[in-house]
What we know:
The protein has four helices and seven strands, in the order αβαβαβαββββ. With 186 residues, it is of the alpha/beta class.
Amino acid sequence: MTDAREPTGLYESPENAxxxxxxxxxxxxxxxxxxxxxxxLVIPLRRHGFDxxxxxxxxxxxxxxxxxxxxxDFITTTTIEFREIGINTIVMNxxxxxxxxxxxxxxxxVGNTRRQSSCVCVLLRLNWIAAKKRKDLLLHLERIIITxxxxxxxxGVVDKGHGGSVDYAWFVFVPRMVEGTIIxxx
Length: 186
């Protein structure tokens, strides 16, 4: 049996994903997008006026004008480097297989900034947060923005015009403990 998943984890976010996030959460830049892929989150973030540092573990052939740094393994980012870059917010749609590690690591990085406005915004399947192994993250989950069904196709797959079959959400984490989580439908 072969793994049907795209080997580099590239499932591109829909163009409107950032608009859905920003309609329900005010974020402050500069922003790090550590799983930039082809730039589908980077482009609209910059269009909204944010300074975005884009990185990815793999070179997916993104347009050079996006300035996506590759290969950069997000998990090797040091706290010192993160502070020197001056990042306030992390926005990402990580490979599902490494999402837990990425969210926990991102929370550590933004926690070290000691800025009240620092947060981690992660686009994942809505049911992602339901796993017992992630219950510790509920203490930092400020907001869930349910985006509904979105199409996230791997490279080379032809869009046949059908709707998406998986419900997604933006999970907004903050380094401090929250008293409750706000859930909204975008």
